[in-house]
Amino acid sequence: MFTLQAEGVEMDGRNSALLAEMSRWRQQVAGLEERLEAAAGEKAAAEAEREHCEARQAALQESVHGYLSEIASLHRRLQGRPSSSGRRCPPFRYLLWGLAIFFILDPLERLIFLLWSNLPNAFVQSHR
């Protein structure tokens, strides 16, 4: 009889230890679930920002193509226009292309570089 009581006390001790361990595991699971939800939210935000940046980049590229086609059209018109001396005006052509490169292509290239270089950082930060 005493043996059964001793075994019962021992089993109660094991049971309480197992219940305490199970409680700790449940707390750890709850913490991991919270971290997983936070990471999923950060990932969704990074994806949305990436899509926004890609859309903005596409719009900027489209506008640059529009500007370049307009410049090419103006260039063709200038080449087709006869001048008073019978010669074309190359310095103006070079000035026009130089201005196009300086004011349109160079800033766009810098913007694309900045956007492109920040995309991997945003993506990596969302997976931490």
Automatic annotation (TrEMBL):
Regions crossing the membrane? 94-116
The alphabetical list of record keywords is: Coiled coil, Membrane, Transmembrane, Transmembrane helix
Q: Where are the coiled-coil regions?
A: 15-63
Keyword Transmembrane present in the record's keywords: the answer is yes
Q: What protein name is recorded for this chain?
A: Uncharacterized protein
